[in-house]
Design goal:
This protein is an alpha/beta fold. It is about 40% helix and about 15% strand. It contains five helices and four strands; from the N terminus they run E-H-E-H-E-H-E-H-H. The longest helix has 16 residues.
Length: about 150
Amino acid sequence: MKEYTLTDLKLEVIYKCPLSCIHCSSESSPAALPKIELSKCLSLLSEANEMGVAKVAFSGGEPLLYNDIITVAKTAVDFGMHTTIYTTGNVPAVNVTFNKLKSVGLHSLAFSVFAPNSKDHEIITRRKGSFENTINAIKYAVSYIFR
């Protein structure tokens, strides 16, 4: 029998999200409450490291709303895992959070853009201004974080 190795792990750390996207598989929303407790998240990362996981991605909801995102990202980076965060960029002080993530060695950000214009994007996210927020977050990340 062929042995298989787990190489990638995706952790949905929080369901809270400022958007209410019509297609959300996590049923995330501004009012969603569940999240992974820090101790459980760190334990999962440790177990993944012991198994040889090379890549980890944090998602949600909006993982930048997870109070411990810097801690868990740093832990994954310190384990040597290629670390990505999936985000909408629709959070307060997103630039400050991006700078903290850069300082702990985050490898990449993946943004959710659902249409090439605000009208169609915001039909999907059900939040006015979400397209502009996402585009501005991408511009900041490209210009100052991952250049």
